Each structure stands twice: as structure tokens, then as C-alpha cells.
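note to self: dont lose this again. the chain is below, predicted strucutre after it. 275 aa total, dont forget to put it in the shared folder this time
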Amino acid sequence: MSVENDGVDPSDPNASPLKHFGSEVQIERERLGMKREELGKEAACGYSLVAKIEAGNRVPPREFAEACDRVFPHSHGRFMRLWPLALRYAFPPWFRRYVELEEKATTVRMFQPQLVPGLVQTEDYARTVLSSARPSNLDDLVTARLERQRILSGDDPAQLWLILNEAVLKNRVGSAEVMRGQLAHLRRLAQEPTNRVQIIRDTGQHHGWASPFGILSFRQGADVVHVDGFPKGYVLAEPDDVTSARDSYDLLTAMAAPLDESADLIDSISKDCYA
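---
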């Protein structure tokens, strides 16, 4: 039992934002005399997911909250207001602050030496990566990871600058089909005018950076740095740390192949390794 849940009755609707969201859904559904199958049809999901959400055992997808506001009279957007709190519950406590910052960022710069970053993973790739730790809440973790990606779409998307080692493309995660889908997704992202995707070719010599890290920039306020690590990542905001991260990212950018060459390399590896 975690410290934040210690002494809390798990059956209490106020035990967590997730429990509260589920309880509100059940109250409104029963008030209408609606069956779970009917709500599932409106929300493009099944009876089982509705039951798990109502019990507070699953993080609701955004589309589910939108369906509740559409179906339940007089909700006035209540479920979409509750939804971010329920979604936040799916992230580890140490990661929640970073997600809040990421949602506000105008530019996201990332370097990854081994795996495709969660912000740009496909659902199949994410599920394979996350399942390796055998979590009890795998579906919630996948839902939360995919929801983070909304910052890269919409009317005012964040600009993405992604630098990957060539090994990321060749490090097979799951089946060849999973990898083909993931590399195709990287290619689509690279074609968006707001994004930059560069690959550092494997020349047989290590370039010196082994730790994944990212830099978030905002319309107002100073940049912050996120460093992935075990057992948890951490956010750095000290000016010296941010300056050091920027310098490192500039060097990695200089080492990486140009944009067109990087796109061709993604295509080539997809064809040669996963056809």
C-alpha cells in the first residue's frame, strides 16, 4: 500500500479522483435508467470497461468523458472537468509534475538512446514496453501515455524536436509488425511542419550520451529539463543545469543526420529489418 493511499477505504467514492469519477458516472447512468451496455455504445466501448470505470478500476479515456457529458443531461461539461484529475491518477506521483509541465510546453526537445520516447509511441509499442514490468494497471498506463500525445495535435500543437540513436530503430520491441507501425508513425511525425526528427547514425563509436533527457520550453517562464532514470526520473530547473542540457542537445543535433537523411534512414531500416 502506498503512503498516499494509506488508511483510505478503497470503497469510498472520495478515496481518489478515479473513484469519484466512476461514482459520478454510475449515479448519472442509474438516474437515467440506462444500462451499462447502452452507455458503452455511446462511448464506443464495452460493458466491461464501463463497469471497471464505475468501480474506479480503470482510467477513463477522454472520449468516455466526452460521451458522458453528451449523454447525461445537465452535466454542463462536468465529466471533462473531472477527467484530467482521473487521468492524473494513472501516472506515478513522481511523474505527475512533469506531465503538468509537458501539457503547457510550446516546444519539446527529446533525446533517447535506446527506446522510442513515450510521447511518440504507438499503442502497440507502448503496450509492449510497459508490459515488460508486469504492472497490474497496464491498460491505465497505456491510456495515460497515449493521452499525453494530444499536445502534438490540435490547433496549436507543441513543436517536437526528437533525436534518436540509430539503435532505437533497430532495437526490436515486440513483433516486426509493431516496429513497422512505430517507424511509420515516426515518419508521419517527421513530415509535420512543426516537428524535427533526427537520427544519430551508428558509426561504431559511442558519442558519450547514455541518459535519455528532454527540454521543455514555454511561452512564458524558463526552460526545464527532464532526465529519465531508474527508479524514477526527475525535473531540473536550475539555470546551470538547463544551460548544460541545452549545450548537450546542440551537440547531439550537430552529430545527427540532417532531416531528409534521417527520414530516409527510418524508411531503410523499416524495410531492411521489419519487412
